[in-house]
Structure formats: C-alpha cells, structure tokens
Design brief:
six-stranded antiparallel β-sheet; globular; four-stranded antiparallel β-sheet; alpha+beta
Length: 805
C-alpha cells in the first residue's frame, strides 16, 4: 500500500491543560476586562513544518531472529520458513503488492525511466539517470540547490512507484516525484509530481527533504515486517530495523517461531483445539456464507468469524497514530493504535471518505461489517486479489436475480452503471492517480448531498447533473422509502456545525445499539466539546461499552469534569484490557493527587501512566508527540519537563504553532508573563500570519494589562481565522473591555449568525444586552441558552425574571 506523505496524518495532538481543564461554565457573563483575564489561558492548536538537518550516516539493518524477541519469547523466522508447509499461500503472496511493498533499488525492481530523463515542476528541473548500477536523481536539496542523490529503495508498485533516498541520521526521504506504472494507454509510463498544484520549495514543510517526508516517521511501519523505528530523541537519529524488507507472512500472523516448533513435532490428525503457536486468521470465507432458502435476497454467515483476522488488516489500512510497536497479532486496533474518527477534514459529514483514510474507518461503518463480512470474504489475503471479478463478487451474498438486474440498478446491462461498485463504492483519487473505493458501501443519498453537501455516487458519475435530479430519479425508480433509510450524517454534521445544541442528538447516537461502533465513538468525540454535568450519566454509560473506541471517546467526555467524578468514572478503566483505553484513562486522571485516587487503583494509575509516556516516547520524532508529552507534564505540574518537551517540538518543527502556544502557557502557569510573550513573538517571527499565535499573544498581553496592544492581536487573529468562533468572541470581550460595547455587540451578532448555538457568544450577547438595558434582546438570548441547556435551573430562573418585567 503506497501512502502519500502529508502533515495531516500526524499522531493526535491533545489539548493543553489550559484548554482542556476548564471549570464548569458559568452562564452569567461578566463584562469587561475581568472576563478577558479569566479566559486568558493557553490553547493548543496544531500545525506543522520542517525539521533541522540530520547529522550522521544513514543505515538500514535487517535484524536476526534472536534480536527480534517479542512477548511469549516468540521470534521472527522469515517467510522462507513458511514456504515448506504453506506452498499455495507462499506462491500467491509472491509477486503481490505486499511482497513487493519495498525493495532494494536495482534493475529488476525499479520501474521508472532513468535514461537521463528530465522532469520539470514549479521551476525545478529534475533529472533521472544511471551511474553504473546506481539509480540517481538530480533535484533540489534541503538548501534549494540541485544535487545528485542515490535511489536506495523502491516503495510500492501500482499504480505508482515511489523512491527512497538515504540521508544522514538514519533517515530515508521519499521523493515527491513518482513513476506512473499504469500502461501508457491509461496515461501511465511517466514521471509526475505528488503535489502538482502546489509550489513546494526547500523552505516548505512538505519539501521532500523535510521532517514530514521521512520514511521512518510516516510509512515504514506498514511496508516492512517487524519494523522497529529505532528513533533516538537525544541525537535526533534513527537506527531502524526490520526482519524482512517487505510485508511478509509474519506481518499479519505474528512471529512464527513457536508455530515452527509445533510443526516439527505435530503429527496428523491435527486437533482444532491445539495451540499451534499462532492466532487463527481463517475467515472460512467460502463455506461460511449460505443463502438460507431458495430465492432469499441475502446470504447469511453460519457464525461470526474470529475478529483477529481483520484486526491484522486494520493497523495498516486505517488512518491512525501508533501507540506501541510489536503488538500481538490479531489484537484490537486500539491495543496498538488510535483510530481517527469520522470527522472533518478526513471524512465528509455523512462519513464518506474525503482525505486519504485507508479503508478501515469506512468499512467499520458499513452494513457489510455489521452483518459479519470480513476483509477475507472479498480479498485473498495472500495475493490481495478479489475472490471474484465484477458483480460476481457481490452476488456471492446478494441474490443476482434481485440485485444484478436493470430493475435494481436502472442502468444498461453490462455498462459501468450496472456494476455494483459504481453506485455503492465510488472512487476518489489519492496521490493524483490512485483511485480508491469507498468501503462504507452505502446506498447513494443525493438527498443528503442537498442538505449536508456530501457527495453521492449518482452525480459523481453524472457530473453535469445536480443532486436534486438524482433524488428525483431515485424517487421514480424506488418510491420515496429510500429517503427514510437510517443515516447518521445529519447528527454528525450537526455535531460539527450546530454547537452545543447538537449535544442531545450526539448523546442519543452514541448510545444507540443500532449504530456501528465507529459512528457511536465519533458522536461521543464530537460531544466532548459540549459536555456539562448533566451529560455525565450518558458518558458513564459509554465507559462500559464493548467497543474500545467508544470507551476511549467516553473518557474524553469526562475529561473536563471535577476530579471526584473523573476518579469515580475513569479509574476502573486504568486496568482495561486494551492499551488505548488504559492510557486515555491515565491521561484523564494525570493531574489528580494520589490521595484522591482509591488506594487499590494507584498502582494501576502509575502503570497506565508509564504506558502512556512510553506511547508518547514512541512518537518522539513527531512534534505532536512532544506536545502531548508536554501537556501531560503540565497536568502533573512538572513545568521544567513540560517546557523541555515543547522546546523539542519546536526544534523538530519550528513551524508547529501549538508548541509555542503551550510553551507560553507553561511560563504563564509559573507567573512569568514576560517569558510567555517572548515565546509567542518567537513563533510569530516564523509564522507571522498564524491566527493561533496572535490570539495567544493577545491573551498574554491582556494578563499584563496591555489592553490596547492585546486588542490589536485579537483583531488580527479573528481576521486570519474568520471561522473560529472563539476568536470572534474574545475580540468582542476585548472591545467591551475597551469601552466599545456597541462595536462588541455588533461583532457578536455577526458571529452568532455564523456560529449558531455557540454558548460563549450567546452568553456574551445576553450579558451585554442586559447591561445596555435592552431587555427584549437579553430575553431572546436567554431563551436560546435555555433551549440549548434545558436542565440548567439558573437559566430557567433568568428567563422567568426577564419575562416577568
């Protein structure tokens, strides 16, 4: 699987203490400077940029089986050890995309044209040529000057092949110019740039010599077997190792030494109960599915497959960050990684793929997954080929008479519109030419395109038509019942656009047993920004969910509440069987003193905290990993360590705005306002147009009593980020503090139109309107607040008082 390296696939960066640990909201907004000072805390908002030049020679080292010990003393033995007993599987794997995922660059593996071919992009002329047996490219280096670089490894196979170039410090950088391996008649057999519409020079964070195009950082984990990143933070270097250069048998099955030992001594007949030294990854794809009766519309599985098989696929076919290396084969994804939820910009409002999300998050939404379909039911795991071609694959489980006919698809038989995947798995190109199908396998919903702006397969194919046309056509074909099919897009979209008013719907969806787990986890994640004490029972219920991603999201929901309730809710999950849940519980409880943790839970808290720190150290080459470590140390009051972690993030990426913001917050918490200001101005010297830094500087100046200078920074932050409701709100408070109430009210009214149901904006409008003597306006805003929070007794009393005058 070839990946485009972008700064968007970073490990999740969590909010700083100041942003995430706020007291319960007060719904009476104090006017003026006092309020502005109350909100003048730090805020993490991620960004990314470039890394310093490496300094030592590069090397990649395959490791021996003895060096590759894993839990239970299992070791890696290599694919050749599997061939003797598993010849058909080995043969199918040979020549597959997995077997050729990464290779040494030589005449038999390099597919690109290196016959002194020149390629121009945005003013840079690169030349691909041979120097003896070496494959070379002359292109712009880290200083912007042309230089010769040796291609050491190939990366990927079809529809494109990328190339890795060694750099000092154990780094391998991915060239942004790739070879199109498709046939010439399909537009292939050419060099092309992965960022064709962007001007990327040596100062750009996505330049191929920079941090975010580093093989070990971004993509090595999924292209080799038993990959150990081997990053040393002190020297900022890598000693990356692997058992096999490609995706071999043990990438999915785990280290096989115990299995080989069993095979040496076992004699047929073999018992199904035998511990053969490897987890079973058999999906029983062929015999498990049967039509329950003649004429039945759908086949059914006789019993659910062991989830271990698909779990082995998930880690590399998903948008996620890494928690640890060397997890047990077949373990849940959340035991080794943290899955990205179905939120923007990665997904459209209804969960369809948008950015490159690598299938798993899409598949988890599907009805196929809910009915027990596994990856192996459709794909041979060894050859990666489909089990059948065209509609024959789908009609293994969908009655062909019912579904593979014009009465169902309403298109000419044999044409593109008659193919199941055209309507149910539309493609989107990533890496310019790689068309990937959306594995959520949904019924087209042009009606949602109208209301949510999400795409639909009909108008993706009929690009000259509007969603209304497609919806009308479906009404004629199928009646209007299709519009009533369950869908989650409306609720998730509200969660991202309707502010606190969306909370009841999000909580209902998160608790719905009919919704897929990833939908429920996404709903709980979106609810985190709007949680209040009244939502605590719903969050607590989700902490007991069977799915670990839901438990993780529920822990995020209780993060802002008081320590006592956090301890009562989260401490049992410190011993959760899934790593991702344990470390999230540890993060949520990191700032609670030992005396407030039940004595029987303290050891579990300490163990989970150590696991959390280890997961952050695993990502120490990511700026966001260092920011998360700094955030943890801030929560624990370990200010020197926090500052050091933020400084490491800045050293890795001087353009990572969140590191400056949180470093300034660390100084603020120690009472060193002048130092906080210096840090933020240092960041602005690198990123003068960064809204987050301007906003944070405004807060720092406010704390120093420099109101006029602060207001200028708030104005600039709001100008640079007009869609950020918080910045508009703070600018309005600063205006009010400067005695410009009318301007503040006008700004808040405009912001209220853009950001419906934002509690801060509504509360400020209420307070300032009442202060101005505009009782009717104050009543309107009080009612809006009460409608969003119907259980808030203070708001009810306010409305009653205002109505009584």
């Amino acid at each position: 699987m070839t990946r485009k390296l972008t700064k968007k696939a970073t490990p999740q960066a969590l909010p700083s203490t100041a942003a995430n640990e706020h007291p319960q909201r007060k719904w009476f907004v104090a006017a003026g400077l006092a309020l502005l000072l109350a909100i003048a805390g730090g805020l993490f908002l991620g960004s990314s940029s470039r890394a310093p030049a490496p300094s030592s020679p590069a090397s990649l080292s395959p490791v021996s089986a003895a060096d590759a010990a894993l839990p239970a003393n299992a070791t890696y033995v290599g694919a050749q050890s599997c061939q003797t007993c598993h010849e058909p599987q080995f043969k199918a794997w040979s020549g597959s995309h997995h077997q050729l995922a990464m290779q040494e660059a030589k005449a038999s593996t390099v597919l690109g044209d290196f016959a002194n071919v020149k390629f121009r992009n945005n003013g840079v002329e690169s030349t691909f040529f041979r120097r003896g047996d070496q494959f070379m490219v002359r292109t712009d280096g880290p200083d912007g000057k042309l230089a010769d670089y040796e291609i050491r490894y190939t990366f990927g196979l079809y529809p494109l092949q990328q190339y890795l170039i060694p750099f000092p410090g154990g780094r391998y950088q991915t060239l942004p110019i790739a070879w199109d391996t498709r046939p010439k008649g399909e537009g292939g057999q050419r060099w092309f740039h992965l960022y064709p519409d962007q001007k990327i020079d040596h100062q750009d964070p996505l330049h191929w010599t920079g941090l975010y195009q580093n093989w070990a950082l971004q993509c090595a984990e999924c292209h080799s077997t038993n990959l150990r990143k081997g990053y040393d933070a002190a020297s900022n270097t890598y000693r990356t190792t692997f058992s096999e250069i490609n995706v071999a048998c043990e990438s999915c099955h785990g280290p096989a030494s115990a299995h080989v030992d069993w095979a040496r001594h076992a004699k047929p007949p073999y018992s199904a109960a035998d511990d053969k030294g490897l987890p079973s990854l058999n999906s029983r794809w062929k015999e498990a599915w049967q039509f329950p009766s003649e004429g039945a519309r759908f086949a059914a599985r006789d019993h659910l497959a062991d989830p271990a098989a698909m779990n082995s696929c998930a880690a590399c076919h998903s948008r996620r960050s890494t928690l640890r290396e060397g997890g047990k084969a077949g373990a849940p994804l959340e035991d080794t990684h943290r899955l990205a939820m179905l939120t923007a910009p990665n997904y459209h409002a209804d969960g369809q793929q948008r950015e490159e999300v690598y299938v798993w998050g899409s598949f988890l939404q599907s009805r196929m997954y809910q009915r027990g379909v596994t990856c192996m039911d459709c794909h041979d795991p060894h050859s990666q080929k489909l089990r059948a071609e065209g509609n024959a694959l789908c009609t293994r489980c969908h009655n062909a008479t019912e579904f593979d006919s014009p009465k169902h698809h309403q298109h000419s038989a044999g044409g593109k519109g008659a193919q199941c995947v055209t309507c149910h798995m539309p493609t989107q190109n990533y890496m310019v030419i790689h068309a990937r199908q959306d594995h959520s396998m949904r019924v087209p919903r042009p009606d949602l395109s109208i209301s949510l702006g999400s795409p639909n397969a009909c108008t993706q194919c009929h690009s000259d038509r509007k969603p209304q046309w497609a919806a009308s056509a479906m009404d004629k074909w199928y009646g209007k019942a299709w519009r009533e099919r369950p869908q989650y897009g409306t609720t998730l979209h509200a969660g991202q656009t309707q502010g606190a008013a969306a909370l009841p719907g999000l909580l209902d969806l998160a608790a719905s047993p009919a919704a897929p787990a990833i939908i429920r986890a996404t709903a709980a994640t979106l609810a985190q920004a709007h949680v209040h004490p009244g939502a605590l029972p719903a969050a607590r219920a989700l902490l007991h969910d069977a799915d670990p991603s839901v438990r993780v999201a529920a822990l995020g929901m209780i993060a802002p509440i008081d320590p006592l309730n956090r301890v009562l809710s989260a401490s049992p999950l410190l011993s959760d069987p899934v790593l991702g849940v344990r470390i999230e519980a540890a993060r949520v409880l990191a700032d609670v003193p030992d005396a407030q943790i039940p004595e029987g839970r303290r050891a579990a808290r300490e163990a989970a905290l150590q696991e959390y720190v280890a997961s952050l150290q695993q990502e120490a080459d990511w700026p966001s990993g260092n920011v998360n470590l700094g955030n943890l140390r801030l929560r624990q009051g370990r200010m020197d360590e926090a500052a050091a972690a933020f400084e490491r993030a800045i050293a890795l990426d001087p353009g990572f705005a969140g590191a400056y913001v949180n470093l300034a917050d660390a100084w603020r918490q120690q009472g060193h306002e002048a130092e906080a200001e210096k840090v933020l101005r240092r960041g602005l010297a690198v990123m003068p147009r960064d809204a987050h830094l301007h906003h944070a500087l405004g807060l720092a100046l406010t704390r120093q009593g420099k109101k006029a200078a602060a207001l200028k920074e708030f104005v600039e932050a709001a100008r640079l980020a007009p869609d950020n409701a918080r910045y508009a709100y703070v600018q309005a408070i600063a205006l009010h503090s400067a005695g410009k109430r009318d301007e503040a009210l006008a700004l808040l009214r405009r912001a209220n139109q853009r950001h419906a149901n934002d509690l801060d904006i509504l509360a400020a409008l209420f307070s300032m309107s009442r202060e101005a003597g505009d009782r009717p306006a104050a009543l309107i805003y009080a009612k809006q607040l009460a409608g969003i929070m119907p259980d808030n007794a203070d708001l009810k009393r306010l409305v009653t008082e205002l109505e009584g005058h």
